[in-house]
Amino acid sequence: MELTTPRIAPLPESEWDDETRELLPKGTRPLNVFTTLVRHPKLFKRWSVFAGHVLSKSTLPARERELAILRTGHRCRCAYEFHQHKRLGLSVGLTEAEIARVTEPGNAGFSEHDAAIVRAADELHDAQKISDETWSTLRKTWDEKQMIDLLFAVGQYTMVSMVLNSLGVQIEDAAPGSNP
After folding, report:
1. What is the model's pLDDT at position 178?
2. Which domains does the chain possess?
3. How far apart are CA 107 and CA 118, in angstroms?
4. Phi and psi torsions of 19, nearest 5°
């Protein structure tokens, strides 16, 4: 059951110190995930490096990375993660229909490669391991680094989904000037 109020609220800007300002993303209103997790600055600082690699320095093509993240967020029943990555997915070439398909059982309508990405996220969620068949399908087009990046992407977003669900991090308001 989704929490409708946060167990740990985002740190309000009025309480940000210099360290907090340094840690939070610059240029836009920081998302609730960041303003909540920054309450633990040492952890946040180290997690941000890892999360930054998974999100923007990974060897995975952005569209395919977002497909894996969306499936992971869906399987973890994390509305916050799914909401944020739906926007990102659309910005890197996923269609509304593909994003809707991510929430459906099975892999109908996906290419062989995309179906294998979805299946890999499912297998990691269910068995904590990618099957030989799915691995072989992905290896037709992906190298070793991409396979490792896929494992860490699904693992990272599984962990983050558990944290967001447990803390009750809420989706940002869609007010003008916000960054929902």
Report:
1. 38
2. 15-55 (no CATH), 60-166 (1.20.1290.10)
3. 7
4. -60, -45
